[in-house]
Amino acid sequence: MTGEPSGGDLSRLRQLNAVAVIKALQGQGALTLTDVARRTGLSRASAEDVVRELLHKGWVAEAGATAGGVGRPARRYRFRADAGRVLGVDIGGHKILAVLADLDGDVQHSVRVPVTPGMGRLERLEAVDRAVAGCLEAAGLTGADVWASGVGTTGLVDGAGRVMLSEALPEWTGVDLAAHLRRIAPAPVLVENDSKLAALAECWRGVARYAKDMVFLLAGLRTGAGLVIDGKLHRGFANASGEIGALPVLGWIRAQEHLSAASGEAGDVFAAARAGERAAVTAVRRYVKDLALGASALVLALDPQMVVVGGGFSRSADVLIEPLRRELDRWCIRTPEVRMSALGDEAVVLGAVRLALDDVEERVLDGRGPLVSHL
Amino acid sequence: MTGEPSGGDLSRLRQLNAVAVIKALQGQGALTLTDVARRTGLSRASAEDVVRELLHKGWVAEAGATAGGVGRPARRYRFRADAGRVLGVDIGGHKILAVLADLDGDVQHSVRVPVTPGMGRLERLEAVDRAVAGCLEAAGLTGADVWASGVGTTGLVDGAGRVMLSEALPEWTGVDLAAHLRRIAPAPVLVENDSKLAALAECWRGVARYAKDMVFLLAGLRTGAGLVIDGKLHRGFANASGEIGALPVLGWIRAQEHLSAASGEAGDVFAAARAGERAAVTAVRRYVKDLALGASALVLALDPQMVVVGGGFSRSADVLIEPLRRELDRWCIRTPEVRMSALGDEAVVLGAVRLALDDVEERVLDGRGPLVSHL
DNA sequence: GATAAATATCATGGAGACCATCATTATTCG
DNA sequence: CGAATAATGATGGTCTCCATGATATTTATC
């Protein structure tokens, strides 16, 4: 039932405690040894021991001592987020966004390359190369300095990092993104669907930070969903979770049609609706009804704590959120909190970073991984 | 993101290894120390140490030595499944089923008390009492010997073990089942929705034994669902997952109506259909169409490895399964394996047992719990 | 039946990791 | 400058695991 708890060696215990110390330091700025001990539950002596080892291995650095208080000032230690770098890439219809982030997940450099939905495979891949190369160059690094890469793209992705099916982008089905990225940066490459990554990002740094179960709705020219269940991204058996749009009665297929029918330019039906224009108001109402139908199916299935709406249309929160909430209320047994994405345009790429960081952390925990740094 | 890995004490390491040894022994009959060492990854010396401790605490007993082979015959040890007992109860419309199981989850005694859907609260609870008392009596035990109880019932259940909403049973909303059961057996009581428990049971001892993501369909006079995600029962934020039936377009509300419309007695439309009777065949076809619609929503949302069909109608697998598979194929991107439940009538109560065992194991792992047995 | 081979158990010692405790050191406060 | 405060550093102890070798018990073979 539950995976093997394994147990094991003494050294495993040390590993566990080392990870606990790192997690305690991460994001907390700098801590004294006493702080570390309290947060990890270790004794002060052991905390010191672990920190010394991490210091030696390059995971931790000394920060300025405490000042002000009475008594001997304590040394402080911080996680060396700059010990390694991960790459995040969002490959969309209109833009390629590549970022280089440190081990805290803070973005150091980012390059955006505009593309068009009609672009072919080679052209698009070439744009990816440029974006990534731009990041590396700005940081004065090479591909070899990257510890892991995360990539987000539209369409279904298989476990090995190939695009299995993409309707939105031409010539995109069958691209082996993992292999392509590995040519630039030889570290492990994780490829994932963009809605799923946006969901991950919202749970990490967005409005769903404290939700364990969350449904992310991608509302834009495409409609999609990403699920976080029990704090983890839910992929499904063949990485095809959240594809509720395939069921016609749930409305996602026809949802956008209401909008494009209302105005030639799909662009600003929302603005028109906001201004009170009759046809636009109707179109938006119908769109929301259809969006809510599929969303209700997800909510009823999973009973999440929160629904987060992202994607291009999330800029029009004022005319979307309240009606959506009302529609959900109509169908759901318990309507979850409904929130607008806080990450906007960068949700996918942040999710890609998180994916890469997860991979790094897993390897650290295993004891393998690129620890034993260049010291 | 990931829950605290905590790390911790030396004694925690021993706990971990003790649990590993117990898991190795459980279900495996009897093992020699060398076997235990190999399975847990511990050294033989340590394995011996752990086993000695478990022996002393009453978790493990010596079994007959090996015979036949060359060399000194090894002692063999087995998990003492009889060291404790858990209770499982299924409270349904037509029957109350109570079982007493050992720590391996093997049922020792079971008592079935017929009830009617129309029965009031007190009468039903009284039937529960009789079923449970019957089990305990047959085993020559008292409520104090029970380490944990699991209870399954229709309707929504809150975290504290109260029924929050039940449409099928009269006067059932608001019953505090946990409190009621605790009066009989003072150990912890876990209460859960019956579809969810059936799902759990199928993943444990049913046809979904090796599936990590699974959707269970309860097909009977009521229609319901239970989800197992990543090997764990998915409850949702307010324990209301799987309630896809609330969405009218997904057909579960009207599904059974087709059947009851076809024959006065809802009972054997399936038999009639099997015999080729025109009206019945149509009714079943419509029923399956509606069932499949809601099921497709779940499958598309989660992309599970397997769909398991249980509930009263699962006896009519021959006229259900194939059409259901075809309908799913029509809507789903990737149609999962579709299987009929192997546990039938006892799925819910087995799930209840599993729930109780999970609780026991958790407490064992924590080191609290009723270990240090009566030795 | 005695001996060899095989295998399990038991005993000893060592290493790693954690903890408690106390002496030492560096500050601030009065 | 001394007292109070709080961190650091050092010592010794305990727990757990592991490797290794001595001892025990059985089967196979001569």
Automatic annotation (TrEMBL), chains A, B:
Gene3D superfamilies: 3.30.420.40, Winged helix-like DNA-binding domain superfamily/Winged helix DNA-binding domain. It holds the Pfam family HTH_IclR. One of its GO terms (biological process) is regulation of DNA-templated transcription. InterPro entries: ATPase_NBD (IPR043129), ROK (IPR000600), Tscrpt_reg_IclR_N (IPR005471), WH-like_DNA-bd_sf (IPR036388), WH_DNA-bd_sf (IPR036390). GO terms for molecular function: DNA binding. Belongs to the ROK (NagC/XylR) family. This is ROK family protein.
